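RECORD TYPE: inverse folding
INPUT: structure tokens
STRUCTURE:
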């Protein structure tokens, strides 16, 4: 059959349209991280941005006597993650015997400092343990013992020395915010992270405990305000959750506003002990947290997830929707 030139042109135009349309659809299709965002039983995630990559540093979720090492994960886009195994363990921290958990990681002067709780001490007169520090030249470690002893090995203001968070203020001052047993302290770190600088009134460990605080503190600033977030409820139960407060200063006062992250009986329970990521140069925020799959009853069976965190016009955090999809890819520029 002989085709006229006009017919050829119509066929070519049609094929070109199909090709362009297919390319556009492919471009529009987004990749999502899925939840859990990393594999395995991992809890208490610390999320950071270092050297142009996202990082997650979680607790290895296991019985305390097995909880003696930690891994890290890195990603360039929040979707594809690379595991960095055994970045710190009790072999490198000689005084830590068990229950290493809830890392907090920060960079200062070209080095990376890995703060952690260890040994689950209950009596500081009889037990050695508390908050220690590892140091490395790289965000993936390995981290070696920085002090050879706990940075905080005593119980001040009723706060068990665990669940630390490192906050750098706009003036360059680093603070440690920490505490379990329903008590939260803040202290000013000295310039080399070997100790503390007292506040102007002579107090070193200041209590900033808000109503219903249990553990897992996180602090960040947005539009000149200081946000303190924490976990409430029992970590092994379904009602573990995250609440927050806002203040004009890192030392408070912090008045509880309400719960923003909690279980969804259709998706997962025990959503809590989190950290926060802000995409640099934007007002785009994410929450990285752990939760328990619906089929699990073992308290240690926790997985790390990521979802969006939004604010309303008054700067209040909107209730966070936990999802199975997770978040779309966000490459760092």
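DESIGNED SEQUENCE:
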């Amino acid at each position: 059959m002989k085709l006229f030139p006009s017919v050829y042109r119509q066929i070519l135009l049609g094929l070109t349209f199909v090709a362009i349309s297919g390319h556009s659809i492919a471009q529009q299709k987004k990749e999502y991280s899925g939840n859990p965002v990393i594999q395995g039983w991992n809890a208490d995630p610390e999320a950071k941005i270092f050297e142009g990559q996202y990082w997650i540093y979680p607790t290895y979720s296991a019985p305390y006597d097995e909880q003696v090492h930690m891994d890290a994960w890195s990603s360039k886009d929040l979707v594809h993650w690379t595991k960095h195994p055994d970045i710190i363990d009790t072999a490198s921290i000689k005084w830590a015997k068990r229950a290493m958990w809830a890392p907090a990681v920060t960079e200062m002067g070209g080095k990376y400092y890995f703060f952690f709780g260890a040994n689950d001490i209950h009596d500081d007169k009889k037990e050695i343990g508390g908050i220690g520090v590892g140091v490395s030249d790289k965000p993936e470690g390995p981290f070696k013992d920085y002090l050879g002893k706990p940075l905080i090995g005593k119980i001040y203001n009723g706060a068990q020395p665990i669940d630390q968070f490192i906050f750098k203020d706009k003036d360059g001052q680093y603070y440690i915010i920490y505490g379990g047993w329903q008590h939260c302290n803040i202290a000013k770190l000295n310039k080399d992270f070997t100790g503390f600088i007292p506040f102007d009134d002579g107090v070193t460990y200041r209590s900033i405990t808000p109503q219903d605080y249990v553990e897992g503190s996180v602090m960040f600033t947005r539009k000149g305000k200081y946000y303190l977030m924490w976990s409430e409820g029992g970590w092994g139960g379904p009602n573990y959750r995250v609440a927050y407060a806002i203040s004009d200063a890192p030392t408070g006062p912090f008045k509880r506003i309400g719960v923003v992250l909690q279980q969804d009986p259709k998706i997962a329970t025990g959503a809590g002990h989190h950290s926060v990521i802000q995409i640099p140069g934007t007002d785009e925020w994410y929450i990285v947290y752990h939760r328990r799959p619906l089929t699990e009853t073992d308290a240690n069976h926790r997985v790390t997830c990521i979802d969006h965190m939004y604010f309303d016009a008054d700067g209040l955090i909107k209730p966070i929707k936990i999802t199975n999809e997770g978040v779309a890819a966000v490459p760092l520029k």
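NOTES: Confidence is low (pLDDT under 50) at residues 15-27.
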